[in-house]
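Q: Structure tokens for this one, please.
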Amino acid sequence: MAAAAAETASRRLGAAVRGLSGAWYGRHMAAAERAIRTRLPLVDLVLEVRDARVPASSAFESLRRRGPLEPDGRRFVVLNKADLADPSETEKWTAYMKKQRTCPCIAVNSHNRESIKELLNVVRSRIREIKHGERDCTGTVLLVGIPNVGKSAIVNAMHQIGRIGAADKGKLKHAIVSSHPGETRDISGYKVASHPNIYVLDTPGVLSPRFANDDSGPRLALTGAIKGSLLDEYDIAQFLLAVVNSREGYRSWENLNQAGDTSSSGNANTSRSHSKKRQYVSDHSQDFIVKAVRQVLFETISSFKGDLGKEDELRRLVDRQFISLQEAFKVSTESSTQQS
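A: Here is the predicted structure, written as tokens:
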């Protein structure tokens, strides 16, 4: 089966991750973890942010090593980037997490205003419960998670929406948001609500030097939790394509050029004006580049006549996809030639 062949690519990338021996866990990350653990007993609520695409692998390991002053009842799991995840799988995860009596869960999209408003309402409600209904109390929330799950994007959105409705309006400060892990180095506080007054502490991402299982490494490499500079980008891309090729999701991309969408695989460098035609600004799947990539992948997979259950055949398809994507985006093929 194709899944078995894709598993080989996963093992290859997993071996590369293990070979790093936790190189991503430097002194700054160790210091951040100590600082977080010091604050855990002092806050009212802990929001553990995970990546909705890999909810298990992106768990914050430090919370699993909690002490007696860190009860699970103060923890709330936030599955961010829900717009990038399979909705049915996210629904299953939120249902599963909610069954864990002491650990509520909510799925959010940090770029969607209504989604963040829902999260803010949940936090307000939880703080009021903790403070026994006091209206003018002050609650503190600690935002924790591994790198690149979107903590800073969440705190910025909560801060902006919350302060607009707050009585003490002022100049907003913003957390640094980056697609690269490790940009947040210090713990910073942001007021996100009044009545009750709620302050959120944004913390640096901390990734454990060791993972609970061998599947976590490749998945975290795909989602950007591990710095790309530590791994071969070709290996990461190869694993991603192997996963896409082994599943049936690509079939839904067949009609991307219908309903007024004019992007095509042969002209991926379409005018930026296409980006203004997105139906939903916060939905990354509406991005014209994303659509172009999906169309290339659909065409290469659907036209491939080999047996994807065989590793060498899957590798042949992946190599063909690299070439097709490079042609579509007018990227030099020299790098892939050197890798082959």
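A few notes: The first strand starts at residue 45 and ends at 51. The chain is about 40% helix and 10% strand.
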